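Here is the promised in-class demo. Please do not try to memorize the tokens; focus on the logic of going from shape to residues.
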């Protein structure tokens, strides 16, 4: 087989990464929740929904700052998209 007959080289890893990044970026436009937990507790609370991921991240950061000001250093905040059922 000659070089001209060879299939073009495809970087499968790069294609997978590109696909994941594209999907994750699309998720930013979805409504999101802020998930609030505290180390040593099984309690979970939620804030939201927020219109998109950026608004949820901003809200989570405000919650974190407020918790730190109140001396609550065990509080944890995460952000997650809401998917349709």
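The designed amino acids, position by position:
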């Amino acid at each position: 087989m000659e070089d001209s007959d060879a299939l073009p080289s495809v970087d499968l890893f790069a294609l997978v990464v590109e696909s994941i990044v594209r999907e994750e970026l699309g998720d930013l436009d979805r409504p999101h929740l802020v998930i609030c937990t505290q180390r040593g507790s099984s309690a979970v609370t939620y804030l939201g929904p927020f219109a998109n991921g950026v608004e949820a991240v901003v809200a989570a950061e405000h919650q974190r700052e407020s918790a730190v000001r109140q001396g609550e250093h065990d509080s944890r905040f995460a952000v997650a998209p809401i998917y349709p059922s």
